[in-house]
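Hey, I'm writing a tutorial for new members on how sequence and structure tokens pair up, and I'd like a real worked example in the thread rather than a made-up one. If someone can provide the structure for the chain below, I'll link this post from the tutorial.
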Amino acid sequence: MQGGEGPAAGGSWTPRGADRTGPGMPGDAAARVVTASVADAAVASPRAREPAYVRSHVAGGHIAGQLEVEPDVVINAAHEVEVPVYQGMIDRVLFTEALVAAGHHLAPVASERLLRDGDV
């Protein structure tokens, strides 16, 4: 800025580049239309909503819901069979296999409800 410009001198302040115009600039309507059409196409595609893989790490509360037990039971069982719990997430396949190997009382229900075709 030069002397006499800017908010301190009573002038107005605008973000850098806000006054620019042209293709791809913030005020360009064509850029907004292209962006919107790409976003709409991604939302409209059913494959965009489907995960490419089945999640293996799930929240302890989700596993508890599947096994119909309290979340603290799942966390305690994970600690008993030495399955890591990282930020509340548990690898459901590792958890199930560890329960089965340890002969834990949750093993039959876990292998029935947590494992899917293609796991293990």
